[in-house]
């Protein structure tokens, strides 16, 4: 039950049950379920993992083991703007390290973290397949390529100014 | 069928989509309509052309004119000039910045004319979301031939005779693998496709799936018939949303056309296909780990034997091949194994696709006959190294592979030659490095990757690679000691011997191969405390050349830690104890007075 008085957590819960229902009889259901549930909640906190464990009738330890094994699954919420810096080989040899440092400086957060206001999270990722444009970063769905460190300030500023 | 006088092909692969190619397609649709030529000209959304460095790319047929780096604002001009008036827009042609090199059409561009496209035959040519276009290019002919004219054993014999070896890295003969699985007894068997593409900086498999998904579906169905399996899984990275979407569309279309499903071509053979998403774990590219992951568990590798051909997915006999391996299969059946045999070298038949990236002009996808030299790829197809820099090495095989230095530029590229010089074919990542790249730093980069991706099941990999990384960190931080190189070598040997799976066994390769060819760089770090390429920050100082500095004070104002001081109109100095080596001063100096040393 949502304690904020709204029904958002109810709808999420309902979706979760639907997802479990859809995959229940599939062999190897856990990973597809985790993918879809993470799309609903944005991340996979322990409370949600418990519901999945109960729904699929597998031990919570197994769910937790799988969630922590794969980098796609997150135990923590992500920022409204997910900044991903490609550290694939093509980007790395073209100076992605310096780009990452610049973004850490600009956002004031370390890689893997989320800003306190919840606006930005910063992650390093591997090859998003735009190696031709290396070095590359991605902010939500937007891709920026052929970057030099001095481009970063302007790009981040655009998102800082956005109000949702 | 409606006949069009011109076709506009626009790349909608991931690289070009990132630079607004979908918007360009919309603009084409709009301007073509505005000019009332929409019943004469058709816009087609294709997969990757390969020349990603110059994307977004638009090709107009029948002429085959290729426009590069097209922006949405350029579309109006292309439509009005090229499509309405028949005049090429020369400022957007490939090579337009170099008057002599202007290429009017695709076939004139060096990048394409030296390639041989078998696995990529349909990429950039057809609309990957249309099964009819695939069929028009002889798609599903091979499947029909196999199901109606051949026994499973005959189908395996064709693959064996072709000499096709796995394109996922190890180069195991595909026919032999199929034979093993066919010989295994069992009612239930599986066919799997490895589309996990874990090598960072490689995107061959993704481009095939995005540009020609039906070729993989057709090949997997043939494989199912050959080994006696009725179900297949495509294990694909979740990071590839466009490829997943196109595969889903393709599977649906193939089902509607009865090309997969029950009783295909009215034979007794049925085959279904399912997609499973990976979740970001490199080790899941390893065959046994991949199967464990499909089973919904932590993707840890298993001990072999038993091999998957005997006991694989869900404990049943299973074959796993790579995307590019499958993409070769249909053509082998339509053109015959003898034809395939004529391409490539004695022990490596056919072609190989490489994702060429790093310090090279034409980054992108190239497909070359086996036996082509690295020099041809780097200089003739790749256009050489940008900014007049010198080639230092090319890295193949990603975190499992090694580097190829300049002295081996003329080595023919095939499985055995590359292994001989301490690298490997790998799945097709090829990263070019120039004189500004530090090889110790590159080795550290790959070790960081393996440490991060080690699944933790076996100690040599979990602990050993971490120890190697610590030594490399020490060296790059200027704290290397006599004996470090020997320790690295010793660890490397024992890890490759004792690790459980290919990840650990090959993890030391980048260190071993950089040591083999660039030992002097390691020694410079350890004994002279110098990074010859000027990459490792701990060993580098930013300095001001007093002869060039005019004392404008710009650097001192920009320095974030106020480490630069001086009097106006006189040379400034950097206080090394405060400098954080961010490099801002060097970027801002207008007189090239600041250098790294
Ligand atoms: C750590 C590791 C990662 C691998 N990653 C991939 C991969 O991303 N894609 C792939 O096709 N093969 C990968 N392989 C090779 C597979 O284990 C397997 O050999 C291959 O998919 C078999 O297909 P093929 O014979 O058609 O090449 C990897 C192997 C190891 C040890
Ligand atoms: S390595 Fe960064 S996009 Fe491929």
Task: Characterize this entry briefly.
Chain A is α+β, with helices and mostly antiparallel strands and 164 residues long.
Please tell me about this protein's structure.
The complex is a heterodimer of chains A (164) and B (597). Chain A is 46% helix and 11% strand. Chain A is elongated, with a radius of gyration of 18 Å. Chain A has seven helices and four strands; from the N terminus they run H-H-H-H-E-H-H-E-E-E-H. Chain A has a four-stranded mixed beta sheet with strand order 2-1-3-4, covered by helices on one side. Chain A folds into two domains: 62 residues; 81 residues, Glutaredoxin. The mean pLDDT of chain A is 90. In chain A, strand 3 and strand 4 form a beta hairpin. By secondary structure, chain A is of the alpha+beta class. Chain B is α/β, with parallel strands linked by helices and 597 residues long. Chain B has five domains: 108 residues, Glutaredoxin; 211 residues, 3-Layer(aba) Sandwich (Rossmann fold); 84 residues, Ubiquitin-like (UB roll), CATH 3.10.20; 90 residues, de novo design (two linked rop proteins) (Up-down Bundle); 56 residues, 2-Layer Sandwich (Alpha-Beta Plaits), CATH 3.30.70.20. Chain B has a five-stranded mixed beta sheet. The model of chain B has no long low-confidence stretch (mean pLDDT 93). At the A-B interface, helix 2, helix 4 and helix 5 of A face helix 1, strand 9, strand 13 and helix 17 of B. Bound molecules: flavin mononucleotide and FE2/S2 (inorganic) cluster (FES). The site of flavin mononucleotide (FMN) has 22 residues of chain B, from strand 8 and helix 20.
């Amino acid at each position: 039950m949502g304690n904020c008085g709204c029904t958002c957590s109810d709808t999420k819960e309902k979706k979760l049950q639907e997802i479990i229902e859809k995959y229940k009889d599939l062999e190897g259901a856990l990973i597809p379920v985790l993918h879809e549930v993470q799309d609903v909640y944005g991340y996979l906190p322990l409370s949600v993992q418990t519901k999945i464990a109960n729904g699929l009738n597998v031990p919570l330890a197994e769910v937790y083991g799988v969630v922590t094994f794969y980098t796609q699954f997150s135990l923590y919420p992500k920022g409204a703007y997910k900044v991903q810096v490609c550290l694939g080989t093509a980007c790395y040899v073209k100076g992605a390290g310096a780009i990452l440092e610049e973004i850490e400086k600009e956002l004031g957060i370390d890689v893997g973290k989320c800003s306190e206001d919840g606006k930005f999270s910063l992650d390093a990722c591997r090859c998003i397949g735009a190696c031709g444009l290396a070095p590359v970063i991605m902010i939500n769905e937007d891709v920026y390529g052929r970057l030099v460190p001095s481009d970063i300030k302007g790009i981040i500023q655009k998102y800082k100014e956005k109000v949702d | 069928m409606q006949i069009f006088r011109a076709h506009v092909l626009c790349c909608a692969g991931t690289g070009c989509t990132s630079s607004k190619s979908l918007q360009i397609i919309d603009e084409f649709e709009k301007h073509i309509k505005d000019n009332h030529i929409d019943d004469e000209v058709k816009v087609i959304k294709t997969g990757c052309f390969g020349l990603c460095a110059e994307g977004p790319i638009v090709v107009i047929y029948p002429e085959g004119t290729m426009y590069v780096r097209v922006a949405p604002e350029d579309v109006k001009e292309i439509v009005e000039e090229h499509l309405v008036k028949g005049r090429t827009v020369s400022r957007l042609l490939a090579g337009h910045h170099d008057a002599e090199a202007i290429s009017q059409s695709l076939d004139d561009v060096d990048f394409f004319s030296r390639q041989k496209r078998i696995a990529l035959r349909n990429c950039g040519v057809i609309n990957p979301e249309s099964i009819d276009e695939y069929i028009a290019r002889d798609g599903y002919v091979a499947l029909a031939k196999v199901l109606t004219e051949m026994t499973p054993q005959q189908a395996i014999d064709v693959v064996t005779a072709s000499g096709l070896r796995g394109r996922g890295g190890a180069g195991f003969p595909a026919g032999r693998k199929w034979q093993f699985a066919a010989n295994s007894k069992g009612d239930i068997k599986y066919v799997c496709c490895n589309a996990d593409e874990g090598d960072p900086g490689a995107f061959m498999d993704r481009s095939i799936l995005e540009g020609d998904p039906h070729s993989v579906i057709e090949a997997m169905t043939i494989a199912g018939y050959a080994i006696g399996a009725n179900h297949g899984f495509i294990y694909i990275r979740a990071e590839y949303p466009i490829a997943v979407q196109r595969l889903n569309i393709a599977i649906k279309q193939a089902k509607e056309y009865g090309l997969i499903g029950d009783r295909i071509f009215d034979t007794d053979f049925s085959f279904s296909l399912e997609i499973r998403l990976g979740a970001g774990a490199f080790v899941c590219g390893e065959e046994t780990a991949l199967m464990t992951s499909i089973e919904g568990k932590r993707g840890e590798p298993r001990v072999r034997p038993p091999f998957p051909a005997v006991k694989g997915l869900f404990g049943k006999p299973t074959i796993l091949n790579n995307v590019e391996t499958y993409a070769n299969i249909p053509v082998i059946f339509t053109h015959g194994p003898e034809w395939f045999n004529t391409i490539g070298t004695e022990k490596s038949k056919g072609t190989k696709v490489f994702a060429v990236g790093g310090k090279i002009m034409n980054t992108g996808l190239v497909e070359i006959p086996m036996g082509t030299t690295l020099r041809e790829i780097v200089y003739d197809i790749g256009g050489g190294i940008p900014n007049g820099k010198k080639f230092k090495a090319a890295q193949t095989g990603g975190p499992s592979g090694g580097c190829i230095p300049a002295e081996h530029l003329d080595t023919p590229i095939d499985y055995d030659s590359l292994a001989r010089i301490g690298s490997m074919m790998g799945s097709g990542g090829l990263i070019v490095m120039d004189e500004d790249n530090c090889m110790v730093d590159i080795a550290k980069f790959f070790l960081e990757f393996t440490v991060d991706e080690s699944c933790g099941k076996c100690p040599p990999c979990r602990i050993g690679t971490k120890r190697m990384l610590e030594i490399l960190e020490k060296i790059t931080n200027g704290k290397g000691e006599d004996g470090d190189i020997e320790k690295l070598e010793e660890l490397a040997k024992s890890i490759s011997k004792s690790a459980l799976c290919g990840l650990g066994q090959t993890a030391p390769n980048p260190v071993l191969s950089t040591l083999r060819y660039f030992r002097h760089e390691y020694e410079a770090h350890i004994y002279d405390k110098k990074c010859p390429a000027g990459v490792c920050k701990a060993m580098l100082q930013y300095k001001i050349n007093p002869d060039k500095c005019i004392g404008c004070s710009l650097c001192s104002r920009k320095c974030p830690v106020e480490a630069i001081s001086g009097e106006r109109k006189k040379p400034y100095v950097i206080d090394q104890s405060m400098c954080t080596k961010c490099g801002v001063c060097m970027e801002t100096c207008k007189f090239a007075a600041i250098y790294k040393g």
